[in-house]
Amino acid sequence: MTVVPSVLVTGASTGIGAAYAERFARRGHDLVLVARDRARMEALAARLRQENGVAIDIIQADLTQPAELATVEARLRNDARIGILINNAGTAIGGSFIEQSTDDVARLVALNTTALLRLASAMAPRLAKAGEGAIVNIGSVVGLAPEFGMTVYGATKAFVLFLSQGLSLELAPKGVYVQAVLPATTRTEIWGHVGADVNTLSNVMEVNDLVDAALVGFDRREPVTIPPLPDAGQWDALQAARQAMLPNYRNERPAERYRTLA
Ligand SMILES: NC(=O)C1=CN([C@@H]2O[C@H](COP(=O)(O)OP(=O)(O)OC[C@H]3O[C@@H](n4cnc5c(N)ncnc54)[C@H](OP(=O)(O)O)[C@@H]3O)[C@@H](O)[C@H]2O)C=CC1
Ligand SMILES: N[C@@H](C=O)C(=O)O
After folding, report:
1. Is residue 258 annotated as part of the catalytic site, yes or no?
2. Which of 28, 45, 154, 210 could pair with 142 in a Cys bridge, judged by C-beta atoms 3.0 to 4.6 Å apart?
3. Reported pTM
4. Going by CATH, does the domain composed of 6-233 fall within 3.40.50.720?
5. Interface confidence (ipTM) of the complex
């Protein structure tokens, strides 16, 4: 791996991914930008090359299409210059579960979970062998909150959090940093995709503030970064409560409350 590793950013044509690309370019990292809209990535790349003097490649890929996803996987598997993956591409769909079509929820799962998983899987063995590198997975606070009413989207983000925490436990001892970033409402185009006008929402975080905060967590090597959460102690308490249950799961007999009929 080079001293300043290249960064591959998925969903880099706009929103959170474009902000990550900008921030890493400012830090002097070469970039590989991935999304479907080549024109937008070319415009971003031209500006970032000019402002920062970094090298930028573009891969136009629809990450829900297996052949196009495979191209990005191969790049991550084989390009030893890439030391950081920003697994950011994701979308959301509007409506309740019974209003959403089966094909639409399957596409959502394919992008938000399968693509993210396959890209991490393509890259992790190389990083583990090198003993360095980072994988950043963009989740959402919605993954902690079925009450927010975005059930399938939230389920994909719960997957991202669990995967990230598990990978962190597996890969940190091998020198590889894994971070889950959990934004809440952030001003990007995603809200248009769920049929909402972001300008009517309250407490909306600006995308650069979100990414700058996520990068503070990145630099501190936090496993989970929740930029909008004021009290980090609440997250720690949730983890402590979860971990306190761990010794209680394995038992020969069902719990007492299930051994009576009433
Ligand atoms: N904004 C918010 O309030 C929050 C966002 N998030 C998460 O942040 C991440 C980024 O979202 P955000 O920036 O807000 O969303 P945007 O809609 O602004 O950007 C999404 C990015 O993903 C790319 N993308 C979408 N579909 C595909 C696809 N099939 N293949 C490849 N790339 C694709 C888009 O590019 P293109 O169309 O060119 O392919 C775009 O670059 C997502 O994972 C989202 O779930 C989490 C919590 C809150
Ligand atoms: N992306 C947002 C929903 O559409 C969120 O995760 O809050």
Report:
1. no
2. 154
3. 0.98
4. yes
5. 0.99
